[in-house]
């Protein structure tokens, strides 16, 4: 408990109270800069609607073998059949393998940009055009990120975004249609107010703990215990974000007005700058004890997290959480439709990638502490046991 009291590093950015009343800023990055955008409670809702909008139900969609699983569930629920292509050990999409797997049944290409790092979108665009099929860019992990000067989500026929992984908002996903062709997209209804309120309070309490140390933690614990009792007594349905599965009951839920208000008040360029600074700090402090997945940060990339390659994820994850760092076991499982034995590099990624927070809430001082804790955990993991003489 003593070490936890010194450090609290949430996996996602927290909501500062002043953000609730801050004036809007002009958004220069998609989806906020996009004229043809629709907002949803979840990004997965946008995936489902994309299948219907492009009339892909009944056809095959070529998707990466390295996936979360919920986007595959949305594709299947919408009536399309997922097929999978190879992704290498550095999150590198094998474009030659994609080309080889395109058949007359292929109705669309699906590209995921991992944690802010751009995939080969130009090559995938060329392939899609050669076969006369649409390209879907999944930017759920890559909000605010660019490939050089080109914002991710603007090259494909459709760009799909998740807001609450990058911004301190209670919910939110977006679908952006690019190009000249227009679609009649419904404006989904707002989600339950009580659910949005519950998520907002949770984000505010995390901010209280982040800034208030032990006192903030005690207040957060007290408020949470009272709040849970009130929610249970009132039978409030809390539509959880970050869930592992697609739920058709929530497909028509839109984004809350509060989410849009908070999102539009964010300093987007400042967020990108802070995330890049924190990533570079971790890279410089950890590269000698854990070979980085990426040894550099390309121009335009807004990293969602620092992907660290480890050998014993469960042990290291427990050590970091014990010290107050909410590290995440990144994309542990294949969707059942994808055969793990066909993609050994992806299976290895799922066994070894740990998500270390580097978001905009974390100061250089906190990131220095994070780096120290991670280094010590890695060193203790690799210390040789003493042999009997």
From TrEMBL:
InterPro entries: DegT/StrS_aminotransferase, PyrdxlP-dep_Trfase, PyrdxlP-dep_Trfase_major, PyrdxlP-dep_Trfase_small. It comes from Corallococcus exercitus. GO terms for biological process: polysaccharide biosynthetic process. Belongs to the DegT/DnrJ/EryC1 family. PANTHER family: TRANSAMINASE, UDP-2-ACETAMIDO-2-DEOXY-3-OXO-D-GLUCURONATE AMINOTRANSFERASE. Keywords: Aminotransferase, Pyridoxal phosphate, Transferase. GO terms for molecular function: pyridoxal phosphate binding; transaminase activity. This is Aminotransferase DegT.
